[in-house]
Amino acid sequence: MRVFYPHAYCSRVWNEAVAHRLSTLGHRARRGDLVWLQEDSAESSLPQIHVVTDQEEQEEVYTLGHVLMPMPGNTVKYPENAMGAWYQERLSRDGLDGCRFRVSNLKLNLPGCHRPLLASPRNLSYQLQRAACGEAGGEETTGNSSRNSDRQLNGTTAEGKLTLTLNFDLDSSCYATICLREIMKCDP
Protein backbone atom coordinates (compact mmCIF):
# COMPACT_ATOMS: atom_id res chain seq x y z
CA MET A 1 0.00 0.00 0.00
CA ARG A 2 2.78 2.46 0.85
CA VAL A 3 3.96 2.59 -2.77
CA PHE A 4 0.59 3.46 -4.34
CA TYR A 5 0.65 7.15 -3.42
CA PRO A 6 4.28 7.78 -4.41
CA HIS A 7 3.70 5.97 -7.73
CA ALA A 8 0.52 7.98 -8.32
CA TYR A 9 2.44 11.19 -7.62
CA CYS A 10 5.20 10.21 -10.07
CA SER A 11 2.58 9.36 -12.70
CA ARG A 12 0.96 12.75 -12.24
CA VAL A 13 4.30 14.52 -12.67
CA TRP A 14 4.96 12.41 -15.79
CA ASN A 15 1.57 13.35 -17.29
CA GLU A 16 2.17 17.04 -16.55
CA ALA A 17 5.64 16.77 -18.09
CA VAL A 18 4.24 15.28 -21.29
CA ALA A 19 1.63 18.03 -21.60
CA HIS A 20 4.30 20.68 -20.98
CA ARG A 21 6.75 19.04 -23.42
CA LEU A 22 4.20 19.01 -26.23
CA SER A 23 3.01 22.57 -25.62
CA THR A 24 6.49 24.11 -25.35
CA LEU A 25 8.80 22.04 -27.56
CA GLY A 26 6.28 20.92 -30.14
CA HIS A 27 5.78 17.69 -32.02
CA ARG A 28 9.35 16.90 -33.14
CA ALA A 29 12.32 15.36 -31.39
CA ARG A 30 14.46 18.23 -30.09
CA ARG A 31 18.06 18.62 -28.96
CA GLY A 32 18.34 17.29 -25.41
CA ASP A 33 15.37 14.93 -25.68
CA LEU A 34 15.92 11.34 -24.59
CA VAL A 35 15.50 8.38 -26.96
CA TRP A 36 16.51 4.72 -26.96
CA LEU A 37 19.87 4.38 -28.68
CA GLN A 38 19.42 2.82 -32.11
CA GLU A 39 22.11 0.23 -32.66
CA ASP A 40 22.63 -1.94 -35.71
CA SER A 41 24.38 -4.68 -33.77
CA ALA A 42 22.61 -7.95 -33.10
CA GLU A 43 23.76 -8.01 -29.47
CA SER A 44 21.01 -8.69 -26.98
CA SER A 45 21.87 -6.04 -24.41
CA LEU A 46 19.51 -3.66 -22.69
CA PRO A 47 18.80 -0.53 -24.72
CA GLN A 48 20.69 2.58 -23.71
CA ILE A 49 19.35 6.11 -23.28
CA HIS A 50 20.64 8.56 -25.88
CA VAL A 51 20.44 12.37 -25.82
CA VAL A 52 19.37 13.88 -29.16
CA THR A 53 22.09 16.14 -30.62
CA ASP A 54 21.73 19.36 -32.64
CA GLN A 55 22.70 17.49 -35.80
CA GLU A 56 20.18 14.70 -35.15
CA GLU A 57 17.46 17.30 -34.60
CA GLN A 58 18.34 19.08 -37.88
CA GLU A 59 18.45 15.81 -39.83
CA GLU A 60 15.24 14.60 -38.14
CA VAL A 61 16.89 11.29 -37.21
CA TYR A 62 14.30 10.76 -34.47
CA THR A 63 10.57 11.43 -34.44
CA LEU A 64 8.28 12.32 -31.58
CA GLY A 65 7.43 8.62 -31.42
CA HIS A 66 11.03 7.91 -30.33
CA VAL A 67 11.07 10.46 -27.49
CA LEU A 68 11.14 9.12 -23.93
CA MET A 69 9.99 10.96 -20.84
CA PRO A 70 11.35 10.04 -17.41
CA MET A 71 9.08 8.93 -14.61
CA PRO A 72 10.73 10.57 -11.57
CA GLY A 73 12.99 8.26 -9.58
CA ASN A 74 16.52 7.68 -8.37
CA THR A 75 17.94 5.96 -11.47
CA VAL A 76 16.51 8.03 -14.33
CA LYS A 77 18.29 10.41 -16.64
CA TYR A 78 16.47 13.68 -17.22
CA PRO A 79 16.32 15.52 -20.57
CA GLU A 80 19.15 17.93 -21.33
CA ASN A 81 16.92 20.72 -22.56
CA ALA A 82 14.21 22.92 -21.06
CA MET A 83 12.38 19.81 -19.88
CA GLY A 84 15.20 18.89 -17.50
CA ALA A 85 14.80 22.27 -15.80
CA TRP A 86 11.02 21.84 -15.81
CA TYR A 87 11.33 18.56 -13.87
CA GLN A 88 13.58 20.24 -11.27
CA GLU A 89 11.17 23.14 -10.86
CA ARG A 90 8.13 20.84 -10.67
CA LEU A 91 9.65 18.61 -7.98
CA SER A 92 10.88 21.68 -6.10
CA ARG A 93 7.31 23.07 -5.92
CA ASP A 94 6.40 20.00 -3.86
CA GLY A 95 9.50 20.23 -1.68
CA LEU A 96 11.24 17.37 -3.49
CA ASP A 97 14.12 19.30 -5.06
CA GLY A 98 16.79 17.17 -3.35
CA CYS A 99 14.72 13.99 -3.25
CA ARG A 100 16.44 10.76 -4.26
CA PHE A 101 13.14 8.81 -4.13
CA ARG A 102 14.51 6.40 -1.56
CA VAL A 103 13.27 6.28 2.04
CA SER A 104 15.02 3.52 3.98
CA ASN A 105 12.76 3.79 7.06
CA LEU A 106 9.71 3.02 4.92
CA LYS A 107 11.52 0.50 2.72
CA LEU A 108 10.54 2.71 -0.20
CA ASN A 109 12.63 2.81 -3.35
CA LEU A 110 11.36 4.45 -6.52
CA PRO A 111 13.90 3.90 -9.29
CA GLY A 112 11.73 5.56 -11.94
CA CYS A 113 11.72 4.57 -15.59
CA HIS A 114 11.61 6.02 -19.08
CA ARG A 115 8.28 5.84 -20.88
CA PRO A 116 7.65 6.62 -24.54
CA LEU A 117 6.01 10.02 -24.93
CA LEU A 118 3.58 8.54 -27.46
CA ALA A 119 1.91 5.16 -27.65
CA SER A 120 -0.30 3.87 -30.42
CA PRO A 121 -3.30 1.67 -29.76
CA ARG A 122 -3.26 -1.74 -31.42
CA ASN A 123 -6.13 -3.90 -32.64
CA LEU A 124 -8.41 -0.89 -32.92
CA SER A 125 -12.00 -1.66 -33.84
CA TYR A 126 -15.26 0.12 -33.35
CA GLN A 127 -19.01 -0.36 -33.56
CA LEU A 128 -21.65 2.23 -34.26
CA GLN A 129 -24.97 1.36 -32.68
CA ARG A 130 -28.17 3.12 -33.51
CA ALA A 131 -31.14 2.87 -31.14
CA ALA A 132 -34.54 3.23 -32.72
CA CYS A 133 -36.59 6.08 -31.28
CA GLY A 134 -38.01 5.01 -27.92
CA GLU A 135 -36.17 1.65 -27.86
CA ALA A 136 -33.46 0.63 -25.41
CA GLY A 137 -31.74 -1.67 -27.90
CA GLY A 138 -30.65 -0.76 -31.34
CA GLU A 139 -29.45 -1.77 -34.73
CA GLU A 140 -25.71 -2.43 -34.88
CA THR A 141 -23.48 -1.24 -37.64
CA THR A 142 -19.73 -1.67 -37.86
CA GLY A 143 -17.03 -0.18 -40.00
CA ASN A 144 -16.51 3.34 -41.24
CA SER A 145 -20.10 4.05 -42.17
CA SER A 146 -21.37 7.43 -41.13
CA ARG A 147 -24.48 9.22 -42.30
CA ASN A 148 -23.68 12.84 -41.59
CA SER A 149 -26.59 14.11 -43.67
CA ASP A 150 -29.19 13.11 -41.07
CA ARG A 151 -27.08 13.74 -37.96
CA GLN A 152 -27.99 16.61 -35.68
CA LEU A 153 -25.74 18.39 -33.17
CA ASN A 154 -27.06 16.47 -30.16
CA GLY A 155 -26.08 13.08 -31.63
CA THR A 156 -29.60 11.99 -32.55
CA THR A 157 -30.78 11.13 -36.01
CA ALA A 158 -34.13 10.44 -37.56
CA GLU A 159 -33.60 6.78 -36.57
CA GLY A 160 -32.42 7.45 -32.99
CA LYS A 161 -29.26 8.04 -30.97
CA LEU A 162 -25.84 6.90 -32.13
CA THR A 163 -23.41 5.30 -29.72
CA LEU A 164 -19.82 4.41 -30.45
CA THR A 165 -18.00 1.46 -28.88
CA LEU A 166 -14.21 1.41 -29.22
CA ASN A 167 -11.99 -1.61 -28.58
CA PHE A 168 -8.20 -1.41 -28.56
CA ASP A 169 -5.09 -2.70 -26.83
CA LEU A 170 -2.49 -0.50 -25.13
CA ASP A 171 0.93 -1.29 -23.71
CA SER A 172 1.51 -1.45 -19.97
CA SER A 173 1.41 1.99 -18.29
CA CYS A 174 -0.70 3.45 -21.09
CA TYR A 175 -4.20 4.41 -20.12
CA ALA A 176 -7.45 4.43 -22.05
CA THR A 177 -8.59 7.74 -20.55
CA ILE A 178 -5.66 9.55 -22.17
CA CYS A 179 -6.26 7.76 -25.47
CA LEU A 180 -9.94 8.72 -25.38
CA ARG A 181 -9.07 12.32 -24.46
CA GLU A 182 -6.89 12.54 -27.56
CA ILE A 183 -9.56 10.98 -29.76
CA MET A 184 -12.25 13.31 -28.42
CA LYS A 185 -9.89 16.28 -27.86
CA CYS A 186 -11.31 17.04 -24.41
CA ASP A 187 -10.38 16.37 -20.78
CA PRO A 188 -11.91 13.18 -19.30
UniProtKB/TrEMBL annotation:
GO terms for biological process: pseudouridine synthesis. It comes from the Eukaryota. InterPro entries: PsdUridine_synth_cat_dom_sf (IPR020103), PsdUridine_synth_TruD (IPR001656), PsdUridine_synth_TruD_insert (IPR011760), TruD_catalytic (IPR042214). Keywords: Isomerase. It catalyses: a uridine in mRNA = a pseudouridine in mRNA. GO terms for molecular function: pseudouridine synthase activity; RNA binding. Residues 141-154 have a biased composition (Polar residues). Residues 135-154 are annotated as: Disordered. One of its GO terms (cellular component) is nucleus. Residues 1-120 form the TRUD domain. Pfam families: TruD. Belongs to the pseudouridine synthase TruD family. This is Pseudouridylate synthase 7 like protein. It comes from Dissostichus eleginoides (Patagonian toothfish).
